[in-house]
Write a structure and sequence with these properties.
Strand content: 5-15%
Largest sheet: 3 strands, antiparallel
Helix content: 25-40%
Radius of gyration: 39 Å
CATH superfamily of the domain at 99-187: TonB
Order of helices and strands: HHHEEHE
Distance between the termini: 106 Å
CATH architecture of the domain at 99-187: 2-Layer Sandwich
CATH topology of the domain at 99-187: TolA/TonB C-terminal domain
CATH class of the domain at 99-187: Alpha Beta
Shape: elongated
Strand order of the largest sheet: 2-1-3
Length: 190
């Protein structure tokens, strides 16, 4: 059997295909014609949006936390001269400042970490590094640190990492502690 010879469409079929192609092209271009301005100047209806960046308000800052200086060697006390003084009458106990209770708890926990040798990295002490790290601390309702990040570093990655570890290790802070606060953590050599 001889190979089949391809057949070309007959002229009437070719005209129908060509007409269908032109009609399809016109229908596809029709939506685009609405965007052309054929010499007619139409007023612009575009709105202008202006946005500007502003500094966020500064968060309430707690007083800086530092480890207390070690007590000086005690000197022998001499008894006071004269008659003993009378104890003052019962006085009202001063009410603690609202931020004193939770900051005292934070300071106490950081002192405990320092006593365990977990606060100031030995490598930073050996290099003589000192500085202050501002750490944003976010607490959950139970007083546990749920998130912490460095807001302003000390310039020493060792101290920054130690401050972040120390803040993340805080546990069971009092209910009066703010839920979000920037906590300054200072590293000073004695």
């Amino acid at each position: 059997m001889p190979p089949a010879i391809p057949r070309f469409p007959s002229p009437p079929t070719t005209r129908r295909l060509l007409a269908a192609l032109v009609l399809s092209l016109c229908l596809h271009l029709l939506p685009a014609l609405g965007h052309f301005d054929f010499g007619q100047k139409s007023p612009s209806t575009a709105a202008v949006l202006i946005a500007e960046l502003r500094q966020p308000p500064a968060p309430a800052s707690a007083p800086p936390l530092t480890l207390p200086e070690p007590p000086a060697p005690a000197k022998a006390e001499q008894p006071p001269a004269g008659p003993p003084k009378k104890a003052p009458a019962a006085t009202a106990k001063p009410t603690p400042r609202p931020d004193a209770t939770w900051t005292a708890a934070v300071a106490q926990q950081l002192r405990q970490r320092d006593a365990e040798g977990l606060f100031y990295p030995a490598e930073a002490i050996a290099q003589g590094l000192q500085g202050e790290v501002q750490v944003l601390m976010i607490l959950d309702p139970a007083g546990q640190v749920s998130a912490a990040r460095i807001e302003q570093g000390s310039g020493h990655p060792l101290l920054d990492a130690a401050a972040l570890r120390a803040v993340r290790s805080l546990r069971s802070l009092p209910a009066d502690a703010p839920r979000q606060v920037v906590l300054p953590v200072r590293f000073r050599l004695r």
